[in-house]
Design brief:
The protein is mainly alpha-helical and 356 residues long. The chain is built from twelve helices and two strands, in the order αααααββααααααα. The protein has one domain. The chain starts with a helix and ends in a 9-residue tail after the last helix.
């Protein structure tokens, strides 16, 4: 399909909003972002630039499977070393940080192997396709989603459970980091979901039918690549200088820098060596309807409000719940990386099929 700027620009804004929403709002790292100049000028563009740039790398390489997206999501998450320096020094204000060979080990595993690949990259791309089908009047039988993504978008009991787990995780982290502020929770969730729905509806209204390819930059790819890369390099260097932090620049230890560069090398190597696969769209797959997605948005609001009330009455419960979820993400991240490496290695053998 051929799309004009009238479709592509709001599509870029939508995928950037989804990435920012599922990463920053679900974690409680950002507050009323759409009213905050700092979020709109710095944080939101960082997410938008990363996801547009890396998604187009996947498009041009012909590597759009979930495993490939996971690898690109890990590269996404590594910005937490250069810009925020969390992977080297831990969170600002943290009481204790476990540093091993110059790396904040738990933060590195959780952020780069679990949170950012899944919440900043994979989930936004899947939700974008769900919304594209819904606002292209293809709710029940959609032929606009990639075949390799269909498993995670089908209207099944398993996927509804996964949606509930995602919403529960976001509710817990968000409520805890907002200090149980009911007003702020309501403003952020209602405002964010409204922006997402309006953008998705607007794209559908102007195009009639659209899919993930609306985000693929083609003829002006070199220019877009230069602009986005320059933008991110500026913020990476600014982060190292401490301009984006709450304090003075925190100089990383040499072993920590080497480990981050080795992770880059491993992930890029796996991505390059894995076989490419022609992009195929599903033949009328039955996906999660928009009403279900909207229902889970309401559940998200109710859960967050309930947890906020419980936090005001007995903060220990929410604190314990957050700790349990965070600890789950450590083995979860290692498992995801191990599984993807296994799939990529097997995909090189002629006996096995391409990664899904």
């Amino acid at each position: 399909m051929m799309y004009g700027l009238k479709a592509r620009l709001p599509a870029f804004l939508l995928i950037g909003t989804l990435s920012f929403f599922y990463a920053e709002i679900f974690s409680g790292a950002s507050r009323v972002w759409f009213l905050d100049p700092g979020s709109m000028i710095i944080t939101f563009p960082i997410y938008l630039s990363h996801i547009v740039l890396l998604l187009n790398v996947a498009f041009r390489a012909g590597k759009m499977s979930i495993c490939h997206l996971y690898l690109l999501g890990v590269l996404f998450g590594l910005y937490e070393s250069w810009i925020t320096q969390v992977l080297w020094h831990g969170y600002y204000g943290a009481d204790t940080v476990t540093i091993i060979a110059g790396i904040a080990i738990y933060e590195t595993i959780v952020l780069t192997l679990f949170w950012h690949p899944i919440f900043s990259f994979i989930i936004p791309i899947l939700v974008f396709q769900l919304l594209a089908c819904s606002f292209s009047n293809r709710n029940l039988s959609c032929d606009l989603i990639l075949t390799s993504h269909g498993t995670f978008l089908m209207d099944s009991k398993r996927n509804r459970i996964l949606l509930l787990i995602i919403v529960l995780s976001g509710s817990v982290f968000m409520t805890f980091n907002y200090g149980g502020d009911l007003v702020m929770i309501g403003m952020v969730l209602i405002g964010s979901y409204a922006i997402i729905m309006i953008l998705a509806w607007y794209i559908g209204r102007n195009t009639g039918v659209y899919d993930l390819s609306v985000l693929a930059v083609q003829r002006i790819w070199p220019l877009v690549l230069f602009i986005l890369s320059s933008y991110l390099i500026f913020f990476y260097l600014s982060g190292l200088q401490g301009f984006l932090s709450d304090g003075a620049p925190r100089i990383p230890e040499f072993p920590g820098v080497v480990i981050i560069l080795l992770i880059y090398g491993l992930i890029i190597g796996l991505f390059i060596l894995s076989p490419r696969k022609p992009l195929e769209y599903s033949d009328g797959a039955t996906i999660i309807p928009l009403t279900t997605y909207a229902g889970f948005a309401i559940i998200h609001l109710i859960l967050s409000a309930s947890l906020a009330i419980s936090y005001m009455l007995a903060p220990t419960f929410l604190t314990a719940l957050m700790f349990i979820l965070y600890m789950f993400m450590i083995p979860g991240g290692l498992y995801c990386l191990g599984l993807v490496i296994k799939v990529m290695i097997r995909s090189r053998h002629p006996r096995y099929s391409n990664p899904q």
